[in-house]
Structure prediction request, 433 residues.
Amino acid sequence: MIEAYKLNESGGIEAATRLINRFQLVDDHYRAKVETILESVCGDGDEALVHFTRQFDAPEFTLDDLRVSDGEYAAAAEKVSDDFLETLSAATARIRSFHEREKEDSWLLTRDDGAIVGRLVRPVDSAGLYVPGGTGGSTPLVSSVLMNAIPAKIAGVERCIMVTPPAPDNSINPYLLVAARHIGIDEVYKAGSAWAIGALAFGTKRIAAVDVIVGPGNQWVTEAKRQVAGKVRIDMIAGPSEVLIIADETANPEYIAADMIAQAEHDVLALAIVITTQSHHPAAINKALDSQLSGLGRADIARRSLRDRGCILVAADVGEAIGWANNIAIEHLELQVDDPWNWIPHIKHAGAIFCGNHTPEAAGDYFAGPNHVLPTMGTARYASALGVETFVKRSSLISYSPAALAGDAEHIIRMAELEGLDGHGASVKRRLS
Prediction:
């Protein structure tokens, strides 16, 4: 299914180089259409939301359907199982416990001359959380609700709202609504795709604009977020999900194949990569892939992703594999190697790192605690996972005493004169007279 290449040969180097250079924005087809949608939402507001929702999601949708009602929350609560509620509570506790450690304190630094400087950390006022519909509402992405909302709540954001596309009958999957209520989100709107992003960014009569927009989505959502970035903060420009598995002689090809399939079943554009030190692994992995795909509900998607985008590379040793992994800067990096902790100091760029043969990426997607909203397409070179810091801003604090200003005046005036800004210098001199 997947051809393997040695990294010390031209084919392997070419394949790895393509992976390093995989960043790409959406094409002009999406860009122009999304711009038109955003202009419509900016101009027509709620009427545009109803128009696009009728056209693409729910043919009988009306303005009165836009916000989820108390009755819909109550009905949703009756439709979920006790087992789900148990898992929801446990996952929420894990994710909350991890993100509590991310909270940042304000601080002050005082000098002997009476000057005070510092940093004031404050949450944004509002955040919009985009949750994809998930196969017409039949596969609710509950994990997206938790991963986006919990850090925002911990940051102290007063108004968190959720947008998600409705099913054809105007409904929202009950599991999404129960998850939203469980973590304290009472404002949920039935809107999806680029028009939902436009509503969050520009505001309408019924949906007040927000300060930060986060959450995964398809090409339409991603391009809309890119176009409104600057007016609002966004979490990141995300591409297809991806995993890179580094394997040595201790790795089990069955586990490797299972984790490749778990990634590939997301989307035909998902990217599953293996860099192994073992020459016999490619054949064993391909055999395991073929066997494990049989009977899976999304086997066709996974098979196409693996066939078209999958990659197996053979390295001389783990050190070489990690060197290439650093250049690729993957979203999910699995270390299926002996003593993975020994290699952590050598890893420079990865969205999330999974250590050991018994740490599947799926654990991080749902339950381990760290956020699963991660940088893709090589942006892990400079970007980080979504976290509490996504929802806060930092203001500098500066206070001078007369003595402190007198002590620094000569330096301030010298810099101002160098830059040709006489007024700056004069504002200091006037206080010294």
Summary: The mean pLDDT is 96. Residues 4-25+239-368 form a domain with the Rossmann fold fold (CATH 3.40.50.1980).
